[in-house]
Amino acid sequence: MALIKISEPGASQENKVLDEVIIGIDLGTTNSLVAVVENQKVRFFTDEEGRDIIPSIVTYGGKKISSIKRFMGVGFTEIDGLRVAPAEVSAEILKYLKQLVSKSLRTSSKSLPVVSQPQGSAPLPLLNLYQNTPPVRFSQSLAADSPQRDFELVPNTEIRKAVITVPAYFDEAAKNATKLAAKLAGLEVLRLVNEPTAAALAYGLDNQAEGVYCVYDLGGGTFDVSVLKLQGGVFRVLGVSGDNQLGGDDFDELVADCLKVDSAEARRIKEKLSALTTYHLPLTTFSRAEFENLITPKITRTISLTQNLLNDLELEPADIKGIILVGGSTRIPLIKQKLAEIFGQEKILDQLDPDRIVAAGAAWQAYNLSGKGDNLLLDVVPLSLGIEMMGGIVDKVILRNSTVPTAVTKEFTTYADNQNGMKLHIVQGERELAKDCRSLAEFEIKKIPAMKAGLARIAVSFKVDADGLLTVSAQEKFTGERQEIVVRPSYGLSEEEVKKMLLASLENSKADIAARLLAQTITEANQEIAILKNDLATYSGDDKKMITEKLSLLENMIAEKSSREAILRAKEALEKTAENLVLQKLNSVLSENLIGKKI
Amino acid sequence: MKNHFEILSLPVAFAVDLDALEKKYFEFQRQFHPDRASISEIEQSIAINESYEVLKNPLKRAAHILQLNGLDVENDEVAPKVDQATLLEVFEMREVGNFLAKDLNQKIKNLIDELARSLDHKDFAAAAQILIRAKYFEKMLKDLKANGSH
Question: Between B36, B49, B149, which is nearest A403 by CB?
Answer without folding.
Answer: B49
